[in-house]
């Protein structure tokens, strides 16, 4: 796989991620100031379910002290930087446009990978050369050699173009790896990979270090991002030393793989937050 040369183009201005802010009801002036501050510092919508409750919440990424009525204690979310979608080349449609039947992401794939949260330590192994990751580094996530070989051949047969990736470890020991795989068309990413390799019951291959992986039925439907299909798995007990969570997303011609691992228990809130934010960058 080699990087194709592209004709220089004039980029469009960067597109900010949508921020869903409900219309405030009449309130005293000090509440309005707090709401304005919240909007000013918002970066992206994070939808998640509070552990042990069935209600899903949508809330913009901001300092908790900026949100009227919320306690200052951490709820487990990570502090991600301000997120904006990368610019498109002038005249190029987005992946969901009717004029783009192939579902192509014309933006730089490397700019579509979610950045690490503040305070996390980067995994430099996933940087690759000029931002492009060798296929074998990605395939090393798969436990069995036979499965790695099968996946590698599938990538060759169906025209993998590039892999962009990023990884980090947070202070609590949670390891996150995100891989974006770009193909020629949306039908290849969905029909030949997502639907075949990541069905509801469980992935077709075992990620290294995992044991019994099942569908994560606790992931809130309210966290769905338009234009992005999602399959999410959790590792059931009994587990090994680490707890692993997995998400596989497809948006247009890109298949995204999101993996999180932590000794003891991998917390649900930062995993859901990471999946939703990566989905928003792709959608």
UniProtKB/TrEMBL annotation:
<keyword id="KW-0472">Membrane</keyword>
<feature type="region of interest" description="Disordered">
    <location>
        <begin position="70"/>
        <end position="104"/>
    </location>
</feature>
<feature type="transmembrane region" description="Helical">
    <location>
        <begin position="38"/>
        <end position="59"/>
    </location>
</feature>
<keyword id="KW-1133">Transmembrane helix</keyword>
<keyword id="KW-0812">Transmembrane</keyword>
<protein>
    <submittedName>
        <fullName>Uncharacterized protein</fullName>
    </submittedName>
</protein>
<feature type="region of interest" description="Disordered">
    <location>
        <begin position="1"/>
        <end position="29"/>
    </location>
</feature>
